[in-house]
Amino acid sequence: MTSGAESPTPRRRSDATRAAILEAARERFASDGYERATVRAIAHDAGIDPSMVMRYFGSKEGLFAAVVDVELDFPDPAGIDPDSVGVVLVRHFLELWERDGVLRTLLRVGVTNSAGADRLQDVFRGQLVPAARSFGHPDAERRAALVASQMLGMALVRYVLELDPAVGLSHDEVVAWLAPTVQRYLTAEGP
């Protein structure tokens, strides 16, 4: 007879294996891109047999979808002073990009692979557009796209390409430059 303390062991191993696969895949997709990353290389990096990757995720596409499951966690627009929405959102994005390697992976893959681009579009359409709608303008999708151009552009040069001038900017400097533009995109009547 086994004790109750032993029964979670297979589940913990399963969770640890899944986590190891996701971490290896995140790193491999980020470094090699979607096309060049292979299930075999990801499995090697995770220290498991390639069949385990397929068992947990079904395919390379399924694994990629799991790796780039992104939640932007926007602050509730109703709780933001309308005059400071640009500052709040730019700070929020900077914190997200710096704490979440998934976003960097998604951006790297999104610029070179249609599946990555589709996923990136889904994230911003499903999460940024509703935030833009909360400001009451009928052209929320256009405004969200303009905000994305600023935030993705900064993320690309700061976190993916790592251009020295962009990397060297403090958060306050990035906010000072981008927040007025983001603010205008979301709250101004129009051009």
Describe the structure.
The protein is mainly alpha-helical and 191 residues long. It has helices at residues 9-36, 39-46, 50-57, 60-67, 85-99, 101-110, 114-133, 140-160, 164-168, 171-187. It contains 10 helices and no strands. The termini are far apart.
How would you describe the shape? elongated
Distance between the termini: 74 Å
Mean pLDDT: 86
Query: What is the CATH third-level topology name of the largest domain?
Result: Tetracycline Repressor, domain 2
Low-confidence stretches: none
SS-derived structural category? mainly alpha
Number of domains: 2
Q: What is the fold's blueprint, element by element?
A:
Blueprint: H1 9-36, H2 39-46, H3 50-57, H4 60-67, H5 85-99, H6 101-110, H7 114-133, H8 140-160, H9 164-168, H10 171-187
Helix pairs in contact: 1-2, 1-4, 1-6, 2-3, 3-4, 5-6, 5-10, 6-7, 7-8, 8-10
In short:
This protein has 191 residues and is mainly α.
Supply database-style keywords:
single chain; mainly alpha; Tetracycline Repressor, domain 2; elongated; Arc Repressor Mutant, subunit A
